[in-house]
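Internal QA ticket QA-208
Title: Verify multi-chain structure generation after dependency bump
Assignee: T.L.

Test input:
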Amino acid sequence: MCAAMNAETPISMPIPGHIDPVPVPRAITPRADGRSDLMGLAREDIGALLEAAGLDRKQAKLRSKQLFHWIYHRGVTDFESMTDIAKPMRPWLAERFVIGRPEIVEAQVSSDGTRKWLLRTDDGQDYEMVFIPDADRGTLCISSQVGCTLNCRFCHTGTMRLVRNLTPGEIVGQVMLARDALGEWPKGAMDRLDEDAAAYTADGRLLTNIVLMGMGEPLYNFDHVRDAMKVVMHGDGLALSKRRITLSTSGVVPMMARCGEEIGVNLAVSLHAVTKEVRDEIVPLNRKYGLEQLLQACADYPGASNARRITFEYVMLKDKNDSDEDARELVRLLKAYGLPAKVNLIPFNPWPGAAYECSDPERIKRFSDIVFEGGISAPVRTPRGRDIMAACGQLKSAAEKKSRAELDRLAEEKQAALG
Ligand code: SAH
Ligand code: SF4
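Actual output:
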């Protein structure tokens, strides 16, 4: 099967600083008040912190269970509200710990209901998050890094210098913040500890799905993304099923199997081209992990099946990757590897200085028809939140045009509005 395909020798040529993971260049600034932020921590980690702070093992275990529930199931941020924790214990906790949220620099709502947030880490790095409501679901698009090292030529995030990986707290914090904003925490009496976790489902909720399609390459920050997703999936907390989480990668082949094995989330692959020449140009990581390797890793992805197909994202670039021949080759490749696949055609979102244009709507329609005729679903993604520039990489650039002072003023207003 593979041998019948175009011979393409994968070149393991390092391109320094471009496609290899970079170490975290700047450590996270410790909290000035010396307290530890519990956001993003697993139950065992919370227990370990409590033990280190002086509780005996049994106490630490019990309290960590309670804390985990309050933090992730209830969305509570102050210890005083934790009614099943003994009163004297609450100030003891508050002296040592906080339950943080990312700082909101700017929040906007589009006329189509799409919401967009510009967030800031404790050490002053900005990243973004978008919520896209649909009739039957609500999808939160979260970031995994500040910037990205991969420099895909059509992506604005790729032009930003990677500042650093986001921590599990900053990744989970995005989900927590979205649920705060959507007012989605369960209310009522504190009796959930005895509840059947399975009864707590995403049905009827606004935030039902998560996609790791914001800033950054999630498989270059795998450990933090994995730990964060484990917290998000935990049945006693946010309880989001792995079937409702999709990780998008530009093709970090060596990490794909681990992603399937250790998190088991749905996979989306940013394919964008079907020839070595074009993919080398628009997704430079292709020079390191070529098309054949990538498609084979997809064929081997644990958990992929006809019921859980892999999504292939394909950005429509005028006269670059949008010919009838490209569409036919796409079908041929996906079939040659026997992939349970669906294709997502993304109209290119232009940004100032971009080297490409979006394909014409008729071209996109024709491309989509050819792939559909080949037996593979290929819907065209409707651009959302255009009026607030919610597309990939645009938010931060739009905000950067504002002055620091203006942004600080907006942040103050937001904080005040949050009470
Ligand atoms: N780094 C990961 C996830 C973040 S990018 C990845 O590349 O898959 C999420 C998706 O947005 C990718 O499919 C990416 O190719 C696409 N994208 C980036 N810039 C875009 C643009 N200007 N227009 C349309 N899609 C874009
Ligand atoms: Fe990074 Fe994804 Fe943008 Fe490529 S498309 S530069 S991998 S964020």
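Spot checks passed. The pocket of iron/sulfur cluster (ligand 2) is lined by residues 148, 150-152, 155, 157-158, 216-217, 250, 270 (CB under 6 Å).
Status: verified.
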